[in-house]
Each structure stands twice: as structure tokens, then as C-alpha cells.
Amino acid sequence: MDTPAPLIAAIEAGGTKFVVAVGSGPEDIKAITRIETSDPAHTMREAIQFISASARKYGPVQAIGVGSFGPIDLDPASPTYGFITTTPKPMWSHTAIVAPLHSRFQVPVGFDTDVNAAAIGEMLWGAGQECDPLVYITVGTGVGGGVIVGQQPLHGLLHPEIGHLHIPAPRTPGVIMPDCHCPYHKSCLEGFISGPAIAARWGIKGEDMPADHPALEEVAETLAFGLVNVILTLSPKRIILGGGVMKQAGLIESVRSHTVRLLNGYVNAHAIIYAIDSYIVAPGLGDRAGICGALALGLNAMVEARKA
Amino acid sequence: MDTPAPLIAAIEAGGTKFVVAVGSGPEDIKAITRIETSDPAHTMREAIQFISASARKYGPVQAIGVGSFGPIDLDPASPTYGFITTTPKPMWSHTAIVAPLHSRFQVPVGFDTDVNAAAIGEMLWGAGQECDPLVYITVGTGVGGGVIVGQQPLHGLLHPEIGHLHIPAPRTPGVIMPDCHCPYHKSCLEGFISGPAIAARWGIKGEDMPADHPALEEVAETLAFGLVNVILTLSPKRIILGGGVMKQAGLIESVRSHTVRLLNGYVNAHAIIYAIDSYIVAPGLGDRAGICGALALGLNAMVEARKA
User: Fold this and answer.
1) Would you say B165 and A233 are in contact if contact means Cβ atoms under 8 Å apart?
2) Which residues from A are below 8 Å from B85, CB to CB?
3) Distance of alpha carbon A67 from alpha carbon A308, whole angstroms
4) Which residue among B159, B184, B264 sits closest to A185, beta carbon to beta carbon?
5) Fewer CB atoms near the end CB (10 Å): N or C, chain A?
6) d(CA B161, CA A59)
7) Set of chain B residues whose Cβ sits within 8 Å of the Cβ of A153
């Protein structure tokens, strides 16, 4: 009889909801739940209780992976490693995430941004297999990007914050708030095309927009400016676009054609000139990219701990 | 008696000049020359003759490194690996660089972009030591960027082309050509701040500009938009700024302050908020970053060949 695959707990920590799961891989999720993101103590307690209850039923977890909204501290030498840091989200700034999990379960905890986690999930099991460098971008309540280089999530001074790339401001007639909606910047991606930015700038929610609304064309072109910059900086082998806003019918097709038009032949690569449909793609794991990525972070933490 | 360090030939292949050197490291350059970039056959022949003559004098070279203007083909599986590809430079498009060197000297040849080479040189011996990820940007006849991640130069679909990042267009009063000067794009870094773009847009050469010319402020702010995007995508631990335009007195200081202002506290890192003077820096190797980087590419090719 085969040894059963080790059980991992995964947390996709979002600003609106936490998804918590226990399983050994994307095809073997034993238990999964969704917790509303309230205050940190309450939310973390609920997550911990779900993991404990699942462990009693299915067996102990060998590691935990967390993909979190940010910014987060990823520097192992920092006293605030494993914290959510300067988020504007009420009550969540300077919140320890790794420490309470480690102290309760005494297992290795892998920790990264939600989008780096989604990128890892897609690289292992989704649309990003054999693509290195790989970029995963989400366009939803916020805009963010995860980056894989050399099979590792990219960290540096901090971590990528692709949602705040500065781009030429769109100037579509009919917009009621032409400015960027970001409290930090005057001309950044998130400030033009996040769900709340679209609602504020056009006075209508994304889900209520007719398919021919001019905002959609503007979102496509503005996001394409961001992708152009990502392509010219990271030269990824594939870009995956997830998040609620990207579910608008026809949007990804429009993003592809604006990206090709804006690059204007300068990046002379077959993938861009002849095969853009398989270069800019939807997540292979669909809405499960984030939680599967968190699971991958846990698996990786377990492997690293066994090496050490 | 110590075994002498192996001799490497290095070529910094630029659009205006080729620099060719033979040596074992930055402190041991045995011979160096400068060749005007004319047609490919003539230029490559001169480079090869210089290496041969130096080898007769100092001993055989064990490897060759080439940092080249581009775009170049870095895909080892491609039939045009080691070529300069779609450059607009007359006579140089689709020119083999690696093959004639390899066929003449029968030693390993390392090949990369001029800016990736400069980044490697700075990482090994200059201002980029212990900084990973590292970005080297040159602002001169063109604008380009080299990127190191995980101690390796970043390659992907192609290689970084940071000079063509799309940014909000500057709108300085007094400019005689407000548009971007790039033949491919309408709002890219190189089209606003390369030497030729400055000359065309302001009707005056950089070296003739007084220190209070409004173009200099515009160059600083425009480049800062590019650095902001690089920081938000790659999260480098240091950015090195080289090239002729960067020699303008006061320019790097102005780039630093615009970068901090545009980020506006969003990237909450000590290096940016408190130590920008040691985050955005001049090349430690000065004008030798490129040729030393080519030398490093040769050393690396030698080491890899011995492993294989």
C-alpha cells in the first residue's frame, strides 16, 4: 500500500475573505471553507479552528502555506517577518500571520503574497507549466502581480507591486472622474482599472455594465500598457490574467490586441506576434489558483524544512 | 609558483564602437582597444585580429565573452542563437556574432546583452555586490536595462528591454517636439530621454545644455517614472545608472528625489525612504562596467564548459 501523500493546510488570505483548505494537492482537497475577513484576531481564530477540526478528521497537517494580501514582510531576518505591514485595510496593518499559525501547529509555514502564491499554483498545476519567467496578474478589488523567475517567487527589496505601475493616463470621453483613483499615485494601473476605480470613475459597477460600455475598452487598453511594461522588464514566457474584472466577456481578447498594438513589433517574439492567444491567458486553475498556490507554499515549506 | 589566472577575451559590442580586451579580471587587463563599428564583416575581423595578436603575446584565451547591443537571440535552441536580430542599425540586422568567434578560436563563447553584461560586471566587481535582484540601466545613445535575478542575467521570451517602458508623457513648456522620438512607440522612455531624443525634442545637444535647462528636469522625472516601474516589477536591491546622459552634473540626485516623490511612500522600504543615495547609484566600475561584464561572461562560459 502506498504511503498517503502528506496533508497540508492552505490559507488564501484576502481582504474580503479567507479561503482555508486542507489537502495534499489540487485534486485532493479534503476540506475547504470560506471565512469573511473581519478583525485579525477573529479571522485568524476561525482559520485555526477549521484547520484543527480538519486535522482531527483527516490526520495532522505537515505544513501550512499562506498566500496573503499585502504588502507583507518576506525578509526572514526582519523582526516583522510573516506580518502584513502597511496595508490601508482597517485593523490589519502590522498583523502577524505566520507566528500564530506556527505557535499553534508547530509545523513549517510557507508565506508569500497572494499573487506570488497564485503564480506558483499556476506554474505547478495550471496554465503556467514550463513557463519561466511567469507572471500572474489579478484585476479585481485591487490589482496585483506575482512573478516566478528560476522557479522561485520573486522577492527583493520587498515583492512585486505590479498594480501600481505608472502608465500613460487614459483619456476616454464620458468618464466622470478622469483621474487615477489610487490614494498614493496619480497615474497607476490600480487607480484606473480596479473594480472600485472603475465604479468611481464611471459611476457604474462592473457587473452592471453593458458589453459595449466605453469603460471596458479603456480597461483593456490601460491593462495592456501595464502588460507591455511587464513584458519589457521581465520578458515572461506567459502572462496569466485572473480576478473578478477579467471575467467580463471579451475583455481578455481586447487586452491581447491592445498589447500587440502597443508593442508595435518591437519585441520580435513568435509568442507575441503570432501566438498572443496562448501568451496572455486565463488561469488554468480558475478561481482555485490562489488556494492551490497556498497549498504549494505549504508543500514547499515542508520540503525545505526536511532539507534543513 | 601560482598557476596564472586563465586569460579571457572580452568584447563590448556597441552600435558606435566595439571595445575588445584580453585579461583575467578587472585588475588584470593585458590589452584593450577600441574599434569603430563599421560593417559587420570588417568590425568582427578587426576584433578577431586584436584577440589573436594579444593571444600571441600573452598566451591563448580560454574563453570569450560578448556583451552586445540588441535585440539579440539568446535561445540556445534557436537556429539564430548568438545573432544580433532585428536591430534598425544599418547592415547589422541578422548578424552572427558567436559563430565566427567560436569557429576561429574553438573556445566557449558567453553571449548576452551589453546591459546584462554590465549588470554582471557590477555585481561581481562594482556597485552591485551582494545586491540581488540587481538592475543596471544605461541612458545614452539608447536606453537599456540589464537585470540579475538569482545571480543570473534575466532571460525569458527574449531579454529585458527597459528602455521602451511606457510612461506618462512629460509636458514641459518650451519643448519644440513634445512627442516621443521612438519609431516604434508613442510614450516610451528611450523616445523621451536618450541622447538623440533630447537633441531632437529640445533642439540642443546634451553637452551644450546649461545646468538649469528645463530638459534636465524633464529627463530626471521621466527616468524616475521608469525606475518606479522597475522597482514595482522587480523589487531590485539596487539600481545602477550608467551611460553618457547620466554624466550631467546633478542629474542622478534629481532622479533620486523624483523617484521617491513618485512612489509616495507606497513601497515602505528603508532603502527607498531613508537611503535612496545608496539605492540609486552610479556604476562602481565607471565606464568599464561593459567590458568587465563581457569578461565575466567569458569567465562564466569557461566555468560552464568545464562542468559539462
Assistant:
1) yes
2) 268
3) 23
4) B264
5) N
6) 50
7) none
